[in-house]
């Protein structure tokens, strides 16, 4: 694995979503993640990064390569200072969307990773942390 | 606005040669001369200093947007374009101007050594002027870059939507790369248009070259397929690889309404079967 184990990437515009996906793909393949798991992680990143841009008004993605108790994983934190999510339960319902998407991004991303954590304060922003272990 | 003192200009003219030498030395020391021929550089510095002297002599003030500065502005625009072509970055291009600061400052320092008030005033004017010129260089440099990027994006849009005819009545659209909204719009338009033009009954969209199928991509696909069906044709999605299939299931996407195949060959086979084309057991 290459030297750096953590860092941050701005996620402000639609093109940054592509960069976020590429970074996640590289991190995962450097860790030796299987193709299926890698694809799942990258897809989750795509959903969350797009949410950051579209609903959060732009933010950042912090990344971290984890090595603990003999296992390796990739952890990503998407944070924005947007409007936050008013009704978390509703937002985590399949098929519900506040925009015009399919309403599966957030819930789908949750199913695609091993660990999923969502912190949101209405009016202050949203932080989503996902982890995928190998 | 206060203008440059006459004797400042005289000093610059007098020490013309020395300024040029120091300027070039400063440029070289900072690596702003990479890939530039010595001859070209000395020509550029000489030309620009002359331009600068000419404008200052005409007492045109510091407003480089005015027409008196046309020549100098155009010179810098050409310069930043040529720097962009050489693969320099914006600060290297702007350094062409900023490197002139130190030689000019030290010249003025000696020249006005007995008049600190005037020295301060003249330094401020020169500094402000060079900063504006440097900013102009950066701005033009970025504009050149942006133009290049924009052109490439447009080329990519054109390139990435080749609709090919596989058989009488069967069209294929191999998708490659990212399906952002702008591209998927172009893709959809050109596919629908080709369906009309060729009177095709079946369109195959191949997503082998799409690395990530997320909800947005799926939404675009669903919309495209719906539009194709509204036109009375049918659509098959091919190139659904195992990892993509598993991801789609986990995402919770319902693509059950679509006809999908693992690869293009299977999709073509299905299309031919639907059209009633009999290829025989062995061809």
From TrEMBL, chain A:
Q: Which UniProt keywords apply?
A: Kinase, Transferase
Domain Histidine kinase/HSP90-like ATPase positions: 37-131
Query: What GO annotations for molecular function exist for this entry?
Result: kinase activity
Which InterPro entries does the entry mention?
HATPase_C_sf, HATPase_dom
Q: Which domain of life is it from?
A: Bacteria
Xref: SUPFAM superfamilies? ATPase domain of HSP90 chaperone/DNA topoisomerase II/histidine kinase
Q: Name one Pfam family in it.
A: HATPase_c
Kindly provide the name given to this protein in its UniProt entry: Anti-sigma regulatory factor
Q: Which species is this UniProt entry from?
A: Pseudomonas soli
TrEMBL record, chain B:
Q: Which residues form a coiled coil?
A: none
Residue ranges constituting the STAS domain according to the UniProt record = 160-271
Q: Name the CDD domains for this protein.
A: STAS_RsbR_RsbS_like
* Entry superkingdom: Bacteria
Q: Which SUPFAM superfamilies match?
A: SpoIIaa-like (SSF52091)
Keywords in UniProt for this one?
Answer: Phosphoprotein
The record ties this protein, via Gene3D superfamilies, to: STAS domain
Q: Which Pfam families match?
A: RsbRD_N, STAS
InterPro entries, per the entry: Bact_StressResp_Reg (IPR051932), RsbRD_N_dom (IPR025751), STAS_dom (IPR002645), STAS_dom_sf (IPR036513)
According to UniProt, the name of this protein is RsbT co-antagonist protein RsbR
């Amino acid at each position: 694995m290459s030297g750096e184990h953590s860092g941050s990437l701005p996620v402000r515009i639609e093109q940054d979503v592509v960069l976020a996906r590429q970074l996640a793909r590289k991190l995962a393949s450097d860790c030796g993640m299987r193709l299926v798991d890698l694809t799942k992680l990258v897809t989750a990143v795509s959903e969350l990064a797009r949410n950051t841009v579209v609903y959060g008004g732009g933010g950042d993605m912090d990344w971290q390569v984890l090595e603990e108790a003999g296992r390796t994983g990739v952890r990503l934190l998407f944070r924005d200072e947007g409007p936050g999510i008013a009704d978390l339960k509703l937002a985590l319902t399949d098929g519900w969307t506040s925009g015009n998407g399919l309403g599966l991004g957030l819930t789908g991303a949750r199913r695609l990773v091993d660990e999923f954590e969502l912190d949101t304060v209405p009016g202050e922003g949203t932080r989503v942390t996902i982890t995928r272990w190998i | 606005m206060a203008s440059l003192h006459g004797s400042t200009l005289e000093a610059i003219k007098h020490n013309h040669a020395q300024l040029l030498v120091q300027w070039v030395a400063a440029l070289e020391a900072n690596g702003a001369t990479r890939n530039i021929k010595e001859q070209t550089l000395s020509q550029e510095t000489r030309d620009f200093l002359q331009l600068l002297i000419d404008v200052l002599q005409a007492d045109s003030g510091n407003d480089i947007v005015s027409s008196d500065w046309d020549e100098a502005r155009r010179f810098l625009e050409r310069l930043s374009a040529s720097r962009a072509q050489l693969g320099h970055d914006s600060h290297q291009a702007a350094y062409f101007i900023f490197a002139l600061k130190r030689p000019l400052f030290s010249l003025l320092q000696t020249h006005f050594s007995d008049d600190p008030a005037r020295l301060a005033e003249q330094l401020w004017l020169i500094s402000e002027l060079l900063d504006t010129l440097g900013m102009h260089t950066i701005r033009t440099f970025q504009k050149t870059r942006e133009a290049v990027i924009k052109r490439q994006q447009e080329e990519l849009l054109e390139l990435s939507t080749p609709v090919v005819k596989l058989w009488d009545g069967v069209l294929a659209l191999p998708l490659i790369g990212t399906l952002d909204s702008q591209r998927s719009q172009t893709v959809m338009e050109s596919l629908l248009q080709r369906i009309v033009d060729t009177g095709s009954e079946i369109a195959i969209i191949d997503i082998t070259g799409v690395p990530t199928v997320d909800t947005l991509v799926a939404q675009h696909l669903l919309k495209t397929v719906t539009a194709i069906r509204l036109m009375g044709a049918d659509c098959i999605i091919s190139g659904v690889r195992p990892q993509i299939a598993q991801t789609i299931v986990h995402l919770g996407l319902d693509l059950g309404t679509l006809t999908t195949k693992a690869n293009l060959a299977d999709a073509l086979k299905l299309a031919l079967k639907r059209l009633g084309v009999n290829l025989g057991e062995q061809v």
